[in-house]
Amino acid sequence: MRAYKINGGKKLEGTISAQSSKNSVLSMLAGAILTDDTVVIKNCPKISDVINMCKILSSLGASVEFDDNDLIINASQVNSFCVDEKLCKKIRTSIYFLGSLLGRFGRAKLCFPGGCNIGARPIDIHIKALSELGVKFDYNEKNISCSKQKTVGDREVVFSFPSVGATINLLLFSVINEGTLVIKNCAREPEVVDFCNFLNSMGAKIVGAGQSEITVYGVKQLHGTKYRPISDRMEIGTFIFATYCCGGKVNITNVNLKNSDLLLDKISNNTCSVAYINDIITITSNNIGEGFDVQTGPFPQFPTDLQAQATVYLSICNGRSIVIESMYENRFSHLNGLKQMGADVHVFKNVAFIQGVKRLQGAKVFANDLRGGAALTIAGLCARGQTLMCGVEHVERGYLDYDKKLAMLGASIKTIDL
Length: 418
Ligand code: EPZ
Fold this sequence. Notes:
Elements: E1 2-7, E2 12-17, H1 22-31, E3 38-41, H2 48-59, E4 63-67, E5 70-74, H3 85-90, H4 96-105, E6 107-111, H5 124-132, E7 136-139, E8 143-147, E9 155-158, H6 164-174, E10 180-184, H7 190-201, E11 205-207, E12 213-217, E13 225-227, H8 233-246, E14 248-253, H9 264-267, E15 272-277, E16 280-285, E17 294-295, H10 307-314, E18 320-324, H11 334-340, E19 344-348, E20 351-355, E21 364-366, H12 370-382, E22 386-390, H13 392-395, H14 402-408, E23 412-417
Parallel strand pairs: 2-14, 3-13, 9-10, 17-18, 21-22
Antiparallel strand pairs: 1-22, 1-23, 3-5, 4-5, 6-8, 7-8, 10-12, 11-12, 14-16, 15-16, 18-20, 19-20
Helix pairs in contact: 1-2, 1-7, 4-6, 5-6, 8-10, 8-12, 10-12, 11-12
The site of ligand EPZ has 28 residues, from helix 1, helix 5, helix 6 and helix 12.
């Protein structure tokens, strides 16, 4: 196991560059098999979730290679609609090959996906919608095998919940088609908008991205593209909360996001400021502010992927805060480590009651998932004394050079083998 060894108490000062969005890039990797032309994803982060999706693409017969930071994919030799079971189980987004293999071959065979253990994460919304569109499923508790009728005419589906993954899968399934598909109550996340822009750059005809209703006008085929994904708003939000907790002034350059993507009104507070001008985000934190309440939900509500980082900040804010995690039933596991570091937190079902304390104490803590690991690292950065944050592999699924970027900002952090 590898750990971050952190000596807390340093301010964060300096400049780092934003990575491209993990959650945008992962959907684009699945989308690349919808054309025999070459697809280039510019400034693609070499994080382990991307590497694992690339392994699935290669196992299907695609050529995949990095040219510096650009990822070049050609799926003209893709000759299988069966996804390797071991690779499937490594990540949540292997489920995107359900939609893209159906879109390319009209058939798909894969097992249920893996991913962060933040909850049951069923795929019933995906399966219900695809079944309504004529996809025949044959599945047991382990595998999914399915096939679609020749084409789907003009149809509509209504999601029971604005699922990001189900929206992505329905887009992958329906872009190459003779009919029109209307997806109602779909996800509105910026990463979904980015994916629609990516598909449209390949010749798709998708209208309404970012709204609760998307219309896909099916086309005969897609062509290649060179596409620069949006920046990773969860990485940016993580550095915002890190700077809030440690104090200092941090610039994040090369930011490719709309102002409204960042939901700054939900993550700003009375003693810290976040300015976004041109492609630079400047975070200034003079001292610890008052606590505030958080309830996570689908975009444009507070993002669940920043909940763990926010709880660390609230654990050292003045006063009381309440955090309601509405999206996942097991996304408070980082609070065990935080309590070991002296946080005053009580959890009742999906609600965390937090009373701010003056200072956290360093401790040996364990990450259980990607965002929890990033959050416990922030706790170590602002705690008194030394922290060992164990389970770096969770963090490396979604953050490129997290420790190096923090060290560039003045943090005392390095990765060690335990
Ligand atoms: C995406 O996961 C993100 N992952 C998650 O980020 C993010 O937390 C989530 O959207 C919500 O914004 C990627 O984009 C790769 P959902 P996804 O389908 O698609 C329930 C991170 O840290 N649900 O919108 O799996 C589900 O259980 C990761 O970067 C069903 O019940 O999210 C959850 O409670 C973690 N049935 C809620 O909906 C379904 O068929 C949100 O799920 C599908 C989902």
